Amino acid sequence: xxxxxxxxxxxxxxxxxxxxxxxxxxxxxxxxxxxxxxxxxxxxxxxxxxxxxxxxxxxxxxxxxxxxxxxxxxxxxxxxxxxxxxxxxxxxxxxxxxxxxxxxxxxxxxxxxxxxxxxxxxxxxxxxxxxxxxxxxxxxxxxxxxxxxxxxxxxxxxxxxxxxxxxxxxxxxxxxxxxxxxxxxxxxxxxxxxxxxxxxxxxxxxxxxxxxxxxxxxxxxxxxxxxxxxxxxxxxxxxxxxxxxxxxxxxxxxxxxxxxxxxxxxxxxxxxx
Length: 273
Known about the structure:
Blueprint: E1 4-8, E2 14-18, H1 22-33, H2 37-49, H3 57-72, E3 75-79, E4 85-89, H4 90-98, E5 106-110, E6 113-117, H5 128-135, E7 136-141, E8 144-147, H6 153-162, H7 165-181, E9 186-188, E10 199-200, H8 207-216, H9 220-232, H10 238-242, H11 246-272
Antiparallel strand pairs: 1-2, 3-4, 5-6, 6-7, 7-8, 9-10
Helix pairs in contact: 1-2, 3-4, 3-8
């Protein structure tokens, strides 16, 4: 049984999230290196969200922030207006989400149709049509209720192809309400004192997945350098290294560097005697 952490999501759901191992982080880094938003989103679904159902975009964002914080590094490195690097705690972003209202579940009626809409449930959108499909939770037609979360993408597309233009107007209106009400959704708080610009994200766009790519992208080169130290200097096999979390690797690497520094200092002192 693999280790996991139980967390309470903004939607009120209680879920467990597994560790992020180096083998999976390696895949994430490659998608980041290629700036492949769609591929990165698909991998997050494979790694996490195909096993945890009925999550909206904020829940998914929250989970991935915690994954980054717990298993990679609890801090981001931001560059201020003076080109200086500053550490910024991911916990600050978590706190901002916890203090924001995200209740956008609404029921709309239009002649034969009853629509239950909410926040998008996808991290990546290739078109406006993807956003439409992502905000629909249920459609009721002539006493037949269709749960969109139980449908495959092609089945959702087929249902959408039969609805009238008046329903599309409702979908567009709901998207505008989300975009307007969350236009001030602050991810990173700006600070004149430290020269940091604030970061706001648009929920109904690819803003969240782009931000996630930026904070998970710590560089393939540094990953390979770390892997070389573990396999070439510390006696780990590649399998052993890939089974660690990135944060575990960093802690062990720092212990190794400290020991090396102490040995070098001891050798230097001996030579001076």
